[in-house]
């Protein structure tokens, strides 16, 4: 199953799940919702876990990312 997932998507399930969560988070952040609410809404247990994943994936904080856009 894992090999098929990687073959079909080009990424691991964990990487895919992170991408899906962060994409779902962007409109909520753009609306001005608090990071803690967004984190829980997209499946993170804590805001710090969400922020770490966001920074690791995007390279900056959500606030700075939104200011650039």
From TrEMBL:
GO molecular function: DNA-binding transcription factor activity; sequence-specific DNA binding
Keyword Transcription regulation: yes
Pfam families: HTH_18
Alphabetized SMART domains for the sequence: HTH_ARAC (SM00342)
Keywords in alphabetical order: DNA-binding, Transcription, Transcription regulation
Residue ranges of every copy of the HTH araC/xylS-type domain listed in the record: 1-68
Presence of keyword DNA-binding: yes
Database matches in Gene3D superfamilies: Homeodomain-like
Protein name: AraC-like DNA-binding protein
């Amino acid at each position: 199953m894992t090999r098929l997932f990687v073959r079909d998507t080009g990424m691991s399930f964990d990487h895919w799940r992170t991408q899906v969560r962060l994409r779902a988070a962007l409109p909520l952040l753009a609306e001005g919702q608090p990071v803690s609410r967004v984190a829980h809404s997209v499946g993170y247990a804590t805001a710090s876990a969400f922020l770490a994943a966001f920074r690791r994936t995007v390279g900056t904080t959500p606030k700075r990312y939104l200011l650039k856009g």
